[in-house]
Write a structure and sequence with these properties.
This protein is α/β, with parallel strands linked by helices. The protein has one domain: Vaccinia Virus protein VP39 (Rossmann fold, 3-Layer(aba) Sandwich). Helix content is 31%, strand content 30%. Helix 1 packs parallel to helix 4 (64-77) and helix 3 (45-52) packs parallel to helix 4 (64-77). The longest helix has 14 residues, at 64-77. The radius of gyration is 16 Å and the shape is globular. The protein starts with a helix and ends with a strand.
Length: 206
């Protein structure tokens, strides 16, 4: 899979565009900037937007080509992002470091997903926010009909509402929904999509 993403991100243009994910952008607009973590950040569109909005940004991905594109975009927009290269198993931050966690189309193998999600949750401060958008299991019908709609072809890597509730049990949900929308994000998120959206706050410990 690393080879797949390196090949995709080698293109000169930004294959998912240079503008941020609309759901992430809408939710960040209502939050006081602090420290944000963006896993599986790819070409950096969301990291650069967050930095331009006043956030201190940490991001990571296992694609070296993605990192290069992200740093190039940050230079173009004259902002600083801290971007690590590595797989989930190699990434470590101090517990309870971040004020927000943005998981935008960050899909992991079903066998590891819950462990990865809990690891990422541990990096979030109590009272910190999770912003998640990803493809639901119903999306298979859309990317079968239209490959440009994007998303994994493996149903196990797609989300259900129950998956999110189970993977993030220590959150109060302000929004947790499944929707169908037309995506227009670069070249590979184009067309009708079935999405899971979540916006929640990590419970504070007594």
């Amino acid at each position: 899979m690393k080879t797949f993403w390196d090949e995709r991100y080698k293109a000169e243009k930004y294959v998912y565009g240079e503008t941020p994910n609309a759901f992430l952008a809408s939710k960040l607009a209502g939050l006081k900037p602090g420290k944000i973590l963006l896993p599986a950040e790819g070409e950096g569109r969301n990291a650069v937007f967050a930095a331009k909005s006043g956030w201190e940004v940490q991001a990571f991905d296992w694609s070296e080509e993605g990192l290069k594109k992200a740093e190039k975009l940050a230079d173009k927009e004259k902002v600083h992002i801290s971007y690590q290269l590595g797989a989930m198993e190699e990434i470590h931050y101090e517990p309870e470091t971040f004020d927000a966690l943005g998981l935008i189309f960050a899909h992991f193998p079903e066998t590891n997903r819950r462990v990865y999600h809990q690891k990422l949750s541990d990096f979030l401060k109590p009272g910190g926010y999770l912003i998640l958008e990803g493809f639901s299991k119903a999306h298979l019908q859309f990317n079968t009909e239209n490959p440009k709609a994007g998303g994994p072809k493996n149903e196990g890597m797609l989300f259900s509402l129950e998956d999110i509730r189970n993977d993030f049990p220590d959150f109060h949900w302000e929004l947790l929904e499944e929707v169908q929308e037309e995506l227009k994000e670069g070249e590979f998120h184009v067309g009708k999509a079935a999405l899971i959206r979540a916006f929640g706050r990590k419970k504070k410990t007594n």
